[in-house]
Specification:
The structure holds two protein chains of two kinds.
Chain A (H helix, E strand, L loop, with lengths): L1 H25 L11 H33 L14 H30 L11 E6 L2 E6 L12 E4 L1 E5 L4 E7 L4 E5 L4 E5 L5 E5 L23 E8 L11 E7 L1 H23 L1
Parallel strand pairs in A: 1-5, 4-10
Antiparallel strand pairs in A: 1-2, 2-3, 5-8, 6-7, 6-9, 9-10
Helix pairs in contact in A: 1-2, 2-3
Chain B lengths: L11 H5 L9 E5 L5 E5 L6 H6 L4 H31 L9 H4 L9 H37 L7 H20 L31 H29 L12 H32 L28 H18 L2 H15 L6 H15 L14 H13 L1 H15 L8 H24 L1 H7 L3 H31 L1 E2 L2 H27 L19 H31 L1 E2 L54
Antiparallel strand pairs in B: 1-2, 3-4
The chains are: A alpha+beta, B mainly alpha.
Chain lengths: 274, 617
């Protein structure tokens, strides 16, 4: 029994670390990020992961060791100790400092992504409306203004240009939803009654593998990349299927698509009138 | 224990007035060694007064425990249905499928799935974990461990149990009302929860859900008032605050948490009820379009703020998370020390760290709302306070490890479960740091990592501590000991399957899968997670059915377990001074406390334990 329990306790850190170690090749890991701030988030994730891993292995390892060592049959008394002031100080101050380091390293990235004051100065490209159970994206028409008759409405599909700051406003028509694109490392609840400005900059999507990501000429300008737009906040029975699509195109391809949509609106309008 | 003759009027003991305010019906006698024996009037209580409307803290504790165990079975069954759907969505549910869903050939509907996880969370939190920890162990242990004959307010205590019963009724009955049970998650975020057309569960089920919560809140409040008063006013002579066992500290602290946080939950529950039935506008905003129509036209509420609910709900429910784990920490500490035959390492840091967890617990609620649309600057402050709360948790882990260092570990079922508590709580605690870090939380918020995290805390942590507590205090409850061999079989399987079930949820969450989804494979990118989900589900089924060993052991041991005396574990704290099981009034002699609670391996005495009540010259 003693060996069995020791083994069980030992398996926790061993398999725990092994699972994380092999997770990426098993597909049990974060998808590669494609936005400008994605790598910052990933860096902070790994920073915490490494600190946590050290404490995980240390504490679980001590637990296994102490259990194994001190569960032997022994009729003598245990150590009569009520604690040790220096040790208490040590394991209060060291984790305390590490935790403060973790806290302070997060702040810049958080502020960059979410603070309204740090929102890129560009005009919003679209209003994104969430409702049970679909996404609607509203672009301005040829007049460049929202809320006019020639607005382009794109159901389920959010088309954005790559390599530039994209600002959009998130709304909900009914209940809470959440705008989540895993590859963008972006998640924000859509709240009825609130208009929440968001931004991202997809700067990796159009680069082919093996090409130098720093070389702008290596971009595959023809490529169109699709990502899942996921609702991450419970919004009713159809929450599981509230799927949208993010389509990332080069600037030219984006303009082409936009012109096409605007022309469609025009011709539909003419049909309505005739 | 036979009681020596009662001293006549004017004799030494009587005139010393050992307890001039002795309760009515209590007599005393002086033993040869100077012990003052107490004899309580033996009331023959009717069945109704003894088992149903009891005012005895031990019986009320057992009532909470049995209710909690039954609800644990129900909540677990709901979890099994959830796991079935996640592994094999839209296929026939075995056993109950044909019965419940004849229209679809036995496959569950997505509406039903939303009700499943809503009620799983609700039942487990409000009708299992909180009643088990504070209701069962709080009631049973507080008077016994501080040397009091009962709670300060026995009748209020009885009301505390019976206030929970209507809550149970509403929770279970909600499955059978129009539209079915609540389906807005255990967090009941408006407007999904407030607009009747937004979800089938928001028709009548949600109102039942709110009533269930309100009644369970009244129950907890009655308990909390009682526990706090009893701990403050009714400790035996010599039982200073710093001589209290950590279990008592933890129960006292969670009683204070409930006292300060619960009124907020009760208030917001009533506000949401008003939004739903009286057309007030606390949480439902204006100008919505639900099912192609503006609910205001149908006379529903409008003009409110959805985020207001989130703030107020989490103002209670985050402290509630600590109500669900702090008593587990206290119990695990006592059990570790007893079965390690060694004093708790760092008693004061242990007590202070629980206090700081509770104190910080009031200023971290916003970490549930980093993605909610709350001002991001607030997110920054909530992040710092949340990350800091990892510190007292770390201190506790190190002190538990320090307790095991140089110990003489007894391989009892109670000890194994308490060690498992430490091992699994470490995982749950560490994964919490990701969630606290706001930028990282952007990615992992509302994914399965969160599910993994809180199951490691509440199942891996609290549930194992509850098992440890039951194995440890069962002899005191029933005068018999649970079967050790079955206990170890139960432990090994539970430990393996709990890890297989919950650890892999980290991986699914890292892949980005959001929680509360009825069909993970609606997104192509998650199709490859199906085998992993199957593995988790099979582990969960094994975990569920493995509990048969526990259930059998529990009930068998009540009747057939080996009889034991007062102190089968050679513990030091006061409950082991009482008979097993303790009679009315708990103690049959007057207690005086001379030592701290963890004098194991003390050099003052020959044995390896020195009871708190034993005077050493």
């Amino acid at each position: 029994m003693r060996l069995l329990v020791t083994l069980l306790l030992l398996l926790v850190p061993v398999l725990g670390v092994w699972t994380f170690w092999t997770a990426e090749e098993n597909g049990w890991w974060m998808p590669e990020t494609v936005t400008t701030y994605g790598p910052d988030i990933d860096f902070l994730f790994y920073l915490i992961l490494w600190m946590v891993a050290v404490f995980f292995v240390l504490t679980e390892g001590l637990l296994v060791w102490f259990f194994f060592k001190y569960s032997k049959k022994d009729d003598s008394k245990g150590v009569f100790s009520h604690g040790n002031h220096k040790l208490e100080l040590l394991w209060t101050v060291v984790p305390g400092i590490l935790l403060l380091v973790i806290a302070f390293t997060q702040m810049e990235t958080w502020a960059e992504i979410k603070y309204r004051g740090n929102l890129p100065k560009s005009e919003p490209i679209a209003h994104v409306w969430a409702s049970q159970f679909d996404w609607r994206v509203q672009y301005p028409g040829a007049d460049g203004e929202f809320g006019t008759w020639d607005d382009v409405e794109s159901p389920h599909l959010f088309v954005v240009p790559s390599g530039e700051d994209v600002v959009f406003i998130l709304h909900s028509r009914d209940v809470l939803h959440s705008f989540f694109v895993p590859e963008f490392r972006l998640k924000q609840d859509a709240v009825p009654g609130m208009a929440i400005p968001m931004w991202f900059n997809v700067n990796k999507a159009l680069r082919e593998e093996g090409l130098d990501p720093k070389d702008p000429d290596s971009e595959d300008k023809e490529a169109i990349r699709l990502y899942d737009l996921i609702c991450a906040e419970l919004c009713g029975w159809g929450h599981y299927k509230m799927a949208g699509r993010m389509e990332v195109r080069s600037r030219e391809k984006f303009d082409e698509w936009m012109a096409e949509q605007q022309a469609n609106v025009m011709s539909n309008d003419k049909e309505d009138q005739s | 224990m036979s009681v020596p003759p009662i001293p006549s009027e004017g004799s030494a003991a009587a005139s010393e007035g050992l307890n001039p305010r002795a309760p009515e019906g209590q007599r005393k006698g002086l033993g040869a060694d100077g012990t003052v024996y107490i004899e309580h009037d033996h009331h023959e209580l009717s069945f109704l007064r003894k088992y149903i409307f009891s005012v005895d803290h031990k019986m009320i504790g057992l009532q909470f425990m049995f209710t909690g165990l039954v609800m644990l079975g129900l909540g677990g069954a709901l979890a099994m249905a959830i796991r079935w759907q996640l592994a094999w969505p839209w296929t026939e549910v075995p056993v109950i499928g044909e019965l419940l869903f004849p229209a679809t050939g036995g496959a569950m509907s997505p509406e039903f799935y939303t009700m499943l996880f809503t009620m799983h969370g609700t039942i487990m939190i409000f009708f299992v974990i909180i009643p088990m920890l504070t209701g069962a162990f709080g009631n049973f242990l507080i008077p016994l461990m501080i040397g009091a004959p009962d709670m300060a307010f026995p009748r209020l205590n009885m009301i505390g149990y019976w206030a929970m019963v209507p809550g149970l009724f509403f929770a279970i009955a909600s499955f059978f009302v129009e539209g079915g049970a609540a389906a807005a998650g255990w967090t009941a975020y408006p407007p999904l929860s407030t607009i009747t057309t937004a979800a089938p569960g928001s028709m009548t089920g949600q109102t039942y859900w709110l009533l269930a919560l309100t009644f369970s809140g009244v129950s907890s409040m009655a308990g909390a008032v009682n526990y706090a008063t009893t701990v403050v006013k009714m400790r035996a002579p010599g039982m200073t605050l710093m001589r209290m066992p950590l279990t008592i500290w933890s129960l006292f602290i969670s009683a204070l948490l409930q006292l300060f946080a619960l009124p907020v939950l009760t208030a917001v529950s009533i506000e949401q009820i008003l939004d739903r039935v009286a057309g007030t506008g606390f949480f439902t905003p204006t100008n919505l379009v639900v099912n192609q129509m503006n609910p205001e036209m149908a006379g529903e509420a409008a003009g409110g703020q959805p985020l207001l609910w989130q703030h107020l709900f989490w103002f209670y429910s985050h402290p509630a998370v600590y109500i669900m784990v702090v008593p587990a920490m206290g119990m695990a500490s006592d059990i570790l020390a007893t079965h390690a035959r060694k004093p708790i390492f760092g008693y004061k840091p242990m007590a202070y760290s629980m206090m700081s967890i509770a104190g910080l617990g009031f200023i971290v609620w916003g970490h549930h709302m980093f993605a909610s649309g709350m001002n991001p600057a607030l997110g920054m402050t909530f992040m710092v306070s949340t990350i800091l709360i990892a510190l007292p948790s770390a201190i506790k882990v190190f002190n538990w490890l320090g307790t095991l260092w140089g110990a003489r570990i007894q391989m009892t079922s109670a000890m194994l479960n308490a060690i498992a508590f430490v091992s699994l709580f470490i995982i749950g605690g560490l994964s919490g740091i990701w969630m606290a870090a706001t930028p990282v939380d952007i990615y992992i918020h509302d994914t399965y990592i969160i599910v993994a995290h809180f199951h490691y805390v509440v199942f891996g942590g609290t549930m194992f501590a509850i098992w440890a507590g039951i194995y440890h205090w069962f002899p005191k409850m029933f005068g018999r000991i649970m079967d050790e061999r079955l206990g170890k079989i139960h432990f090994v399987g539970s430990f393996i399957f709990a890890n297989c079930t919950f650890y892999m949820m980290h991986q699914i969450g890292l892949a980005g899968l959001m929680r509360r989804t009825a069909d993970p494979y609606a997104y192509e990118v998650y199709a490859h997670l199906q085998p992993l989900n199957e593995f988790i589900s099979i582990s969960a089924f094994c975990l569920f059915f493995w509990q048969g060993f526990f259930v059998f052991n529990f009930f068998w041991s009540i009747y057939k377990g080996q009889r034991v005396g007062r102190n089968p574990w050679k513990g030091t704290t006061l409950e082991w001074d009482a008979p097993s099981p303790p009679g009315h009034g708990n103690f049959d002699r007057e207690l005086k406390v001379y030592h701290g609670p963890y004098e194991y391996a003390s050099p003052l005495v020959e044995e390896d334990y020195l009871m708190q009540t034993r005077k050493v010259d």
